[in-house]
Amino acid sequence: MLRPIRRRDQHEWQEVSRRNRDWLQPWEATVPPGPAGQASAPRPTYRQMVRFLRGEAAHGRMLPFVVLHKGRMVGQLTVGGITWGSMCAANIGYWIDEAVAGQGIMPTAVALSVDHCFRTLGLHRIEVCIRPENRPSRRVVEKLGFRSEGIRPRYLHIDGDWRDHLVYALTAEEVPEGMLERRRSLSSGHGPGN
Fold first, then answer.
1. Residue pair 110/140 in contact by the 8 Å Cβ criterion
2. What is the secondary structure of 26-39 as a DSSP string?
3. Burial code of 141-152, b = ≥16 C-beta within 10 A, e = fewer?
4. What is the pLDDT of residue 184?
5. Among residues 95, 169, 160, which one has the least CA distance to residue 134?
6. DSSP secondary structure string for all residues of 27-76
7. What residues have CB less than 8 Å from 148, skipping those under 6 apart?
8. Is pLDDT larger for residue 39 or for residue 112?
């Protein structure tokens, strides 16, 4: 299940994040140093992060969700960079608790968010950018049939440096049946190519 992130999630979010620090650290966004080597801005507190995410959501630029499994928080998924007008696109970023990784939770969460973006919001294109070394995260989008579009050199500041990212994308026309339905078909072996 996905639901909007809340301030009162702080204790649970911090506990899951703390427990998964080593698992997530190679993939986490970092703030680059300022001009001429000035110190980078400090990492925001949980409350500052939620205030920012919810403010962006209120302006239609972002959808910040927590991922729940069996009533427990197991990760976060954010639809960001929402662009309207002639583009109607967004990007998705996510992380999951190592204790439940590989159980199909994140592919289902991504499918739910894509369906919401295409069917409810009316977006046309979704991108997911992933470091080439992050095989588990790449497997999530590959399972769902996102198409690879190449590499973006030094795209995001991750784990202390500018890192290359592979670009995966999908348009609404590519999943007329809906992403969750595609996920179910592929999981049952009735999808394309099976």
1. yes
2. GG-B-PPP-GGGPP
3. bebbbbeeeeee
4. 87
5. 95
6. G-B-PPP-GGGPPPPPPPPHHHHHHHHHHHHHTTS-EEEEEEETTEEEEE
7. 166, 167, 168
8. 112
Instruction: Map tokens 């992403």 to a residue.
Output: 179
pLDDT tens-digit readout, 141-172: 999 999 999 999 999 999 989 999 999 999 99
Asked if residue 29 has pLDDT above 70, the reply is: yes
DSSP class of 104: S
The radius of gyration of the chain from alpha carbons, rounded to an integer in Å, stands at: 17
Q: Which amino acid is residue 28, in one-letter code?
A: E
Is the model's pLDDT at 127 over the cut of 50? Answer: yes
pTM listed for this prediction = 0.92
The burial of 123, by beta-carbon neighbours within 10 Å (0-12 exposed, 13-18 middle, 19 or more buried), is given as buried
The residue with tokens 């970092």 is 30
Structure tokens at 136: 């588990």
3-class secondary structure per residue, 8-24: HHHHHHHHHHHHCHHHH
Q: What is the distance between the alpha carbons of residues 127 and 146, in angstroms, rounded to a whole number?
A: 9
Query: Does the structure show a pLDDT above 70 at 102?
Result: yes
For residue 173, the 8-state DSSP code is G
In the beta sheet, which residues pair with residue 63?
79
- Inter-residue contact 151 to 167 (CB < 8 Å): yes
Return the sign of the alpha-carbon dihedral for residues 63, 159, 12, 97. Answer: positive
Region 44-54 average pLDDT: 94
